[in-house]
Amino acid sequence: MAPVIRLDKLTKHFGAETALDGVSLEVPPGVVFALLGENGAGKTTAIRIMLGLAEPNSGQAEVLGLGSARQGLAIRQRVGYVPERPTLYEWMTVEEIGWFTAGFYGPGFLPEYARLAAQFGLPPRKKLGALSKGMHAKVALALAMAHQPELLILDEPTSGLDALVRREFLESMVDRAAQGQTVFLSSHQIGEVERVADIVAILRKGRLLLAEPLDQLKAQVRRLTVTLKDGVTALPELGGEILSQRRKARQWQAIARGVSDEQVAMLRAQEGIDDVEVQATSLEDIFVAYMQGSNGGMGSVFAKQEGREEVQEDVQKIAGS
Prior knowledge:
alpha/beta, Rossmann fold, Alpha-Beta Plaits, 2 domains, six-stranded mixed sheet, four-stranded antiparallel sheet, 33% helix, disordered C terminus
């Protein structure tokens, strides 16, 4: 089955800064795909290139079989997109923005938007400029979902939502995937991502570290706490890939990938080892370990390049599509 999204060696520079560095990945249909990364990792840049709102320096992006560089308009007509900071016409009411946007879609848009607006508790006759940040986010979500797109692209979609609405919204994303639709989301809410994502990808400083099924990733990565005997200082070979490690007195704690049960048993049998404790890891544990690994650290922030001016421009383009 053809991928819904395909990125092939995608590279993007902002002056001397590299936002994306040869990123390649594929998103299959009917999944919730989560893109994780620290601020400035390149997540928003990747999304904008996918939608044809920015051009890469090299590489290619395809969405729904369409080339992002040349067919961005057609892509934006077929997907639902919520930017991190949605910009709406604040002089319109909740009802009016639905009526205005419906002109770009089919006849089913308006009743579905009204249903979603009611579900989110949006006051139909209240002007957008008088809404809270959370209400703004709900309007943007309703607009993005009302034409029932086969692909929904969300950049920090739950920012500003209260806990109950956030949970209901995320559960609805799982339902969409179960019906064969695809959800691509970028989020800092790692605990939320863990509850809903089928596949996760991690970007660090513009480089893709991994992209794989979440259950497979969590099965591969474990936390090892090794207690050394008195007088022993060096941590023995653990096997597998050590994502991060730290020492406190006689204990070494490591987040490791690919360490088998047999290797753990051999570790326990070594001289100088007092105890080895093995624990499961959360997605947050894994994410932090990759960020704090030997090549970790906080990446450059592309706030100006990915800032409010571009988001406003993007919304105007989408409204015109």
